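Before the break, one more example. Copy the sequence into your notebook; we will annotate it together after we see the structure.
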Amino acid sequence: MEISAKLVAGHTRLDRLYQEGSAKARLPKTPGTALEAILINTGGGMTGGDRLHVGVAAGAGAHLVATSQAAEKIYRSPQGEALMETRLEVGAGGRLDWLPQETILFQGGRFGRRLEADVAADGALLIVESTIFGRTARGEEVTDGQFADRWRVRRAGHLVFADTTRLEGDVATLLDRPAVAGGGRAVAALLHVTGDAEERLDAVRAVLEHHPAVEGGASAWNGLLHARLVARTGIVLRAALIDLLQILRGQPMPRAWMC
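Here is what the structure looks like once it is written out:
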């Protein structure tokens, strides 16, 4: 699926939408000048051998908010991995908020996520990805699984952020290690590419302090703000993320997040 937005008479409008297979998008009417896109996987989840490509672009001066209808589920994979490839682009003076809801890795699930982003020198990009290992409300543990997450972000053509995470095998035991997740089962990574990133750091850290059930840290440098969060459950993690994202965005979350 590919979706792009452009600025028309002070408002962001749809420029191009291409849909194929189980990947669909809906564009609800929302107040303000931004365009909101709700991405839907009509397959209900992913398993070994599934491939999902999503391309999202905010053109010059446009503001596009992309989220998902619900959590993405990664089911048991007898062989092979489910792969999600995300391509984000932000034009001059544009803004893109990439705000998918959680990914839930079931016992036996194998999942690879590859995220590539290109941001203009004066563009702004906000990314959040959260993952829950096992259906924690059921007490499920991922003792056999795979999770591989790769981010590459470029600004003005230069690589400014690269991060790779890989957990394989007995994921629950790996998450119990103090240097990994300290027993947490829900993790999130957030990256904000914006000219005033350093000025936002104190506000982000203040939000983290108000969520003592969440272990988190944030740093900012050269127009980048990066935060990581760990919690025992997805519900606790989500509450902290909503507060963080509302502070950074200066507006309420997309309605899909609040349903």
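The chain has a mean pLDDT of 96. The chain has four helices and 17 strands. Try to locate both features in your own notes.
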